[in-house]
Design goal:
Strand content: 15-25%
Low-confidence stretches: none
Shape: flat
Structural class: alpha/beta
Strand order of the largest sheet: 1-12-10-11
Number of strands: 12
Helix content: 40-55%
Distance between the termini: 6 Å
Length: about 280
Amino acid sequence: MEVVVGKLAGFCFGVNHAVEEANKLLDNENGIYCLGEIVHNKQVVEKLENKGMKTVNSLEEIPDGSTVIFRAHGEAESVYKKAEGKNLKVIDLTCGKVKAIHIKVQRNKEDSFILIVGKKSHPEVIGIKGFAGENSFVIESQDDILDAYMEYEKTNLGKVFVVSQTTFSSSKFDDIREEIETNFCEAEVVVDKTICDATENRQLETRQLAKEIHNMVVIGGKNSSNTKELVNVAKEYTDSVYPVETVDDLKEIKFNNISKIAIMAGASTPKESIEDVKIYLEKI
């Protein structure tokens, strides 16, 4: 089988930085905690945990005075304050693109109602909302816009500032943006499409590959939002999309009459996983 690997498949800058820095820390220090999965990839997390990193779900699980990593997704402002209260040494590995959104919503929250376009349960969105404050609302789909407007009406703010989860679907954001501008027509609406370039370009490449090759394997963690978006993008152009987490998942798939297949991978997928999948497919 001929295998084409997407040029942008695999780690983005923010994930690569977080993983590299975590590895350096673990080479020199013991008893390091990470608040939540450092990235949404089981294999990456397990490797770091095997080196001694301890993944926890809350700061309460961390002894006072310990070292804690804040992952690439970022945390809410209140989490920083709580960490300070526990005298924790914070290693902040928040992606620079996400940090930039934190700064933007902080600057605008005094005179603007903040709308965050993204998945409500995603840790990045939770962190952004934590910096945006009370006068903010998360919009996951057009169905949320009316509720957002009703919350906006409770305030005396005349401005609306719109940002996005960095890994959100670019096309979905554009559709939601149009609806926001229509429904908030009485307000001064400022839209900042904060979807990461790496995310948008990866979606564009996925779209192009799906059009040209039609058969695609998408590699990524089951909890990875950006990987799920790549699957959704590919499915817009072909039904032959195979989402997998590791090469082992391919063994359950029966490929029939496929001579050429493309590989794309999410921003948290290590190069080893991509190479393993490539080698397996080439042998079919």
